[in-house]
Write a structure and sequence with these properties.
Blueprint lengths: L6 E5 L5 E6 L4 E4 L4 E4 L3 E7 L11 H13 L5 E7 L6 E6 L4 E7 L6 E4 L4 E5 L3 E6 L3 H6 L5 E6 L3 E7 L2 E6 L4 E5 L3 E5 L3 E6 L3 H6 L5 E6 L2 E6 L3 H11 L11 H10 L2
Antiparallel strand pairs: 1-2, 2-7, 3-6, 3-10, 4-7, 5-6, 8-13, 9-12, 9-16, 10-13, 11-12, 14-19, 15-18, 16-19, 17-18
C-alpha cells in the first residue's frame, strides 16, 4: 500500500465525528477547519495540496500543481497533516462534520482506487490518498449538473472520509440500471458510473412542479451515495425563514432559473 493504513471509529448520530487511530509514524490529511481534538503525541503541519506526492511528483512544481487543482475545486491552497510523532502506542485525532449528516468511510481499494465526489464533501483521508479534480466532459452535466464542470476525485489505496447532509443512501447499480435524482443530492459515485443530466419532461412539470428543471441520471454498473439534505437546500430554507434573499421554492420557476444562473 502507498497510503498509510489507519483505523477509525465514527461517533454520533445526527452530527457525527470520526476518530482516526494512528500508529507511530502514521499520518492523516484533512481539510482546514475539520479538526476537533487530538492526543498530545499528535503533531500537525500545514502543506500544499494533499501530500500524496505520487500523482504530481514531490518537487516544487508538483506541489504547486496539486495546490492549484484544489483552488479550481473551491478549496484552500493548504491542507493539514496530522502525524503520530511518538514511539509507542496508538494515538487519536478526531475530525468533526461541518453540518448535520453522515460521515461515509470509503476504502478506495474496494472501488478500483478511485471515487468521484462533490467538491465540498471531502473531510479527511490517510496520507497517500490523492485529492484531485475530475472534469465533466459533457456540456449538459457541466452547465446544469449542480457541481459545474469540476468535481473532486479521490485516488489511491487507502481510507478516505466524505460527508453527506441528512441521511445517506447507498445504491449498487447493475449494468444498464438507471436512477434519477435531484442534482444536489449526489454525494459520491464510483468511476464506472455514467453521469448525465436530463431535462424534466412537460412544461407544467418543469416550471411549476416544485422539483427543478433537471434530473441527474446515473447509469450502472457501479455504486452511488445519495444524501437526503443537500447543504444548499438547507441554506436556502434558513435564508428564506430569516427573511433573507433565499428562494422560497427551490424547484419553482424562479428557483429553477436562479439555479441556472448561480450554477447550483
Amino acid at each position: 500500500m502507498s497510503a498509510h493504513e489507519i483505523d477509525y471509529v465514527i461517533m454520533g448520530e445526527e452530527i457525527q465525528c470520526v476518530e482516526v487511530q494512528l500508529d507511530p509514524g502514521e499520518s492523516v490529511v484533512a481539510e482546514a477547519g475539520s479538526f476537533m481534538m487530538m492526543d498530545p503525541e499528535i503533531t500537525m503541519e500545514t502543506i500544499f495540496g494533499d501530500g500524496s506526492g505520487s500523482r504530481q511528483g514531490s518537487g516544487l512544481m508538483g506541489k504547486l500543481m496539486g495546490a492549484g487543482k484544489r483552488v479550481l475545486t473551491g478549496e484552500s491552497l493548504f491542507m493539514t497533516v496530522f502525524t503520530h510523532s511518538g514511539h509507542y502506542g496508538r494515538k487519536n485525532v478526531t475530525f468533526a462534520a461541518p453540518y448535520p449528516g453522515k460521515i461515509i468511510p470509503l476504502d478506495l481499494q474496494q472501488y478500483s482506487g478511485k471515487v468521484i465526489c462533490q467538491k465540498d464533501s471531502f473531510l479527511c483521508a490517510a496520507k497517500g490518498v490523492s485529492v484531485g479534480i475530475e472534469f465533466q466532459r459533457k456540456l449538459g452535466v457541466g452547465f446544469f449538473g449542480g457541481e459545474g464542470f469540476i468535481m473532486q476525485k479521490l485516488e489511491g489505496d487507502g481510507l478516505a472520509f466524505v460527508h453527506s447532509g441528512g441521511h445517506v443512501l447507498e445504491r449498487t447499480l447493475q449494468p444498464g440500471e438507471t436512477i434519477k435524482l435531484d442534482t444536489g443530492c449526489l454525494v459520491a459515485m464510483t468511476s464506472s458510473v455514467d453521469y448525465n443530466i436530463e431535462f424534466v419532461k412537460g412544461v407544467k412539470t418543469a416550471l411549476f412542479g416544485g422539483e427543478g428543471l433537471f434530473f441527474a441520471t446515473l447509469r450502472g454498473p457501479g455504486k452511488v451515495w445519495v444524501q437526503s439534505l443537500p447543504f444548499s437546500r438547507m441554506a436556502d430554507r434558513i435564508l428564506s425563514a430569516a427573511g433573507g434573499s433565499g428562494r422560497k421554492e427551490e424547484g419553482s420557476i424562479l428557483g429553477g432559473l436562479g439555479n441556472l444562473l448561480d450554477g447550483r
